[in-house]
Specification:
The protein has 393 residues and is α/β, with parallel strands linked by helices. The protein has 14 helices and twelve strands. The structure holds pyridoxal-5'-phosphate (PLP). Its cofactor is pyridoxal 5'-phosphate.
Length: 393
Amino acid sequence: MTDTPVRRTAWPDSAARPLVTPLQPSVVYAAADPDALDAQYEGRVQGYAYAREGHPNADVLAAKIDRLEGAEGGFVTGSGMAAVGAMMLGALKAGDHVLGGDQLYGRSLRMLGDDLPRLGIATSLADPTDAAAIAAALRPETRLILIELVSNPTLRVADMHGIAALARERGILLAVDNTFTTPRGVRPFEHGADIVIHSVTKLLAGHSDATLGYVAARDPDLGAAMRQAAVTWGMTPSPFDCWMAERGLNTFELRYDRAEANAAALADHLAGLPGVRRVLYPGRADHPDHNRAGDLLQGRFGTMLSFEIAGGRAAANALVRAAGDIAFAPTLGDVATTLSHPVSSSHRAVADEARTALGITEGLFRLSVGVEPLELLQAELSAGIAAAAQVAG
Ligand SMILES: *Cc1c(COP(=O)(O)O)cnc(C)c1O
């Protein structure tokens, strides 16, 4: 008899457990016999069968995010958009209506505008800072409202309490995309949300090296339906990404607190610079939603801020080129500070008039603040803004 390396070997026993979550890339799991497989599928014993249906790295990560959100039974998806998709496909049927906030993440807007209508699901948008506007947009067939609590890039704060009261009264599901605010800012289940979703890609994983999402529902049956949708439509995550994200998540709270303190200080620094027309940060008294932010976010004003400089594209180019090592990148939530320019990235598909109405001009920048020394960020941004001012004249 010849041996062959094709046959798997036994995993070595160890009385001591590894400190770090093992990475388990196996797509399939071998059961002892058909009875054992029955026991597993019937839920009499816990076990994995096929990675698209679930694997340990996804479950470990989901359990950690559940604890942050005060949720139970949440699950991880292959991207933030997969989380939005699994939620919609699990919760809705043809004939339903979905109401979205009018400043949702761009791809979410596209799903509502182009994709759900093709499946027979009607959609419309309304301003989530105004509960009366949301109330006016509800229809008898409205099944779900999707909002983000702080909008990109103008950082308007939704009337969470007003919208939650409406949703409860009318028996409509309220879903919150908590990517921007994170459970460090607000835990939406404590304010009346029925569903919480995340792009884990952003602040939770925090290092721009894993693309993942998360979904949790208050109602276990609804959560199970959304999980099944993710499995059926193939929206489930890679073990490696989950493993990377879990590592990133270990420092999430530290990163968040440091970045938030930087953001608050930078907002004030920028507001004092000649050449800066306005600063948008919910923690500042001059922000239009400052009071609501104080109430909803309890002083956790977040890691994101926007500011506007004078001048057109030439000034914008000059700022980016002179802003030291701050990466110009259309993302958020990285451990390092990133600078984005909505007109040329997130909002490039938005019509000029609509953009202007939102206050999104060539001079508007959004900063996703990271954990660098504050003085370094102040110096780099000051240099960028001074260079832009020279061009703007
Ligand atoms: C990035 C983002 C998403 C989409 O997440 P991906 O991981 O890129 O698919 C959804 N919602 C918000 C608010 C986001 O910032």
